[in-house]
Amino acid sequence: MTAPFGGSGRAVPGLPNLPTPPTGWPVGSYATYEEAQRAVDHLADSDFPVRDVTIVGVDLMLVERVIGRLTWGRVLMSGGASGAWFGLFFGLLLGLVGTTTAPFVAVLIGLVGGMIFGIILAAVGYGASRGRRDFTSASQMVAGRYDVLCQPRNAEKARELLAKLAMSPGAGQRPAGS
Fold it and tell me: Which residues form the General stress protein 17M-like domain (predicted)?
């Protein structure tokens, strides 16, 4: 299984290394990525050569969902927590390679020092913003629709298979070209 925007980081033979516009004929159009993925899964289950298929997000949008209000308490707790993780890591390394201090003491010093350092950095950063962004959010890229493209040599077969899928209960597909 692959991620929609991720990958293994390795070049795949036959695929371009630089960003290029997709090629192929539209064989289906879907409102959500999940529906487009279901269509490609259907093609794969039907022994279709899915290497000829591409899912293309059209009308891209950056959606920022506001999660909550940002307060001094949250800023300091978050800074302390992230600093604690960094300090714990540093303390463990120091405890493993250090020769003068007991490993437990090195871990404890790293943990406390990391928390203090994290709190100070978070406070300075939040104070410098002067209340211009008093909320937390999560961003993601979404598309207005997802088109499934197929290379011309197999496009008609893909359309036929996806038409059968569209006739099944709960398909939720708009046929290509509509």
Answer: 27-111
Specify the CATH number for the domain of residue 49: 3.30.70
Range of the domain at 107: 71-133
Domain count, the chain: 2
One digit per residue, pLDDT tens: the chain, 178 residues? 454 544 444 566 666 678 889 999 999 999 999 999 999 999 999 999 999 999 999 999 999 999 999 889 999 999 999 999 999 998 888 888 876 667 788 888 899 999 999 999 999 999 998 878 888 899 999 999 999 999 999 999 999 999 988 887 755 545 554 4
Are residues 84 and 129 part of one domain?
Answer: yes
Q: pTM to 2 decimals? A: 0.60
Q: Is the domain of 153 the same as that of 116? A: no
How many helices (H) and strands (E) would you count in the chain?
4, 3
Gyration radius of the chain's alpha carbons: 25
49 and 80: one domain?
no
178 falls within a domain: no
Distance CA 58, CA 142 (A): 9
